[in-house]
């Protein structure tokens, strides 16, 4: 069950050639495996266009940061906005927007939401797979098969986008892996308008809020909260926590017309 608590605010190894030559074959093999695992982890934390292109069929496709940045820049320029003007309207620093447009950094959900509001575009159009728009009447069902979710990587979270071929949705559903382990992993708490629901699929999770409250979740637990209150997700188990998250923007902050 989820438990509420009070959150606290937040060799180089040198090996001689002679010793290496005498090392057993088993030790050398273990070292090689560790180096391969380390390289794989580094590649996962810093996704690239080449990795996205090489993604095997049937696996979730990696979203290229540069492609996302290109769409952000196109949306800004098509509205005749300068970096400074977009910064003023979104509350996001000019340097952050500029780096995001070049694909140098990965943006978190709150920054994407702020930019989408300022640009008056639907959240999912930024990720480039939108095909259909939700109507005012009965909405056509959209199916996201396992292994087909576009993946957007950030240092602390890996977002798996769900139903992002449908624009105009009232909620943004995502599957996420939580890499963050401590509050210091974040420059600040994450805040965005609306409400948020999280269901813990695997692992152990702690949600910390800027008001001092924290909730510990075990597998099968869930939490619903006001996402305008600063919050962070932290994995507290041996493995990275896996969650289902649904973010719902409020009508007050939702763009009147979305692309």
TrEMBL record:
CC annotations in GO:
cytosol
Q: Where is the composition biased (Low complexity)?
A: 1-31, 39-57
Keyword DNA-binding on entry: yes
A single MF term (Gene Ontology): DNA-binding transcription factor activity
Q: Which UniProt keywords apply?
A: DNA-binding
HTH cro/C1-type domain: residues covered: 72-126
Q: Does the keyword Nucleus apply?
A: no
Q: Where is this region: Disordered?
A: 1-72
PROSITE patterns membership = HTH_CROC1
Q: What is this protein called?
A: Cupin domain-containing protein
């Amino acid at each position: 069950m989820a438990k509420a608590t009070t959150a606290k605010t937040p060799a180089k190894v040198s090996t001689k050639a002679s010793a290496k030559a005498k090392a057993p074959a088993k030790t050398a093999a273990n070292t090689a495996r560790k180096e391969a695992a380390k390289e794989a982890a580094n590649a996962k934390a810093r996704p690239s266009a080449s990795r996205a292109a090489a993604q095997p069929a049937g696996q979730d496709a990696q979203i290229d940061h540069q492609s996302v940045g290109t769409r952000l820049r196109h949306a800004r320029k098509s509205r005749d906005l300068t970096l400074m003007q977009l910064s003023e309207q979104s509350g996001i620093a000019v340097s952050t927007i500029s780096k995001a447009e070049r694909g140098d950094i990965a943006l978190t959900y709150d920054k994407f939401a702020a930019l989408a509001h300022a640009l008056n575009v639907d959240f999912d159009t930024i990720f480039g797979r939108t095909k259909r728009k939700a109507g005012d009447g009965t909405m056509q069902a959209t199916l996201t098969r396992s292994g087909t979710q576009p993946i957007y990587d950030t240092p602390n979270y890996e977002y798996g986008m769900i139903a992002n071929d449908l624009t105009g949705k009232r909620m943004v559903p995502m599957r996420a892996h939580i890499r963050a382990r401590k509050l210091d992993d974040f420059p600040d708490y994450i805040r965005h308008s609306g409400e948020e629901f999280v269901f813990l699929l695997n692992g152990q999770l702690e949600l910390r809020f800027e008001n001092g409250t924290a909730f510990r979740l075990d597998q099968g637990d869930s939490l619903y909260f006001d996402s305008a209150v600063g919050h962070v997700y932290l994995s507290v188990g041996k493995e990275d926590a896996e969650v289902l998250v649904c973010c719902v923007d409020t009508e007050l902050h939702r763009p009147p017309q979305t692309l």
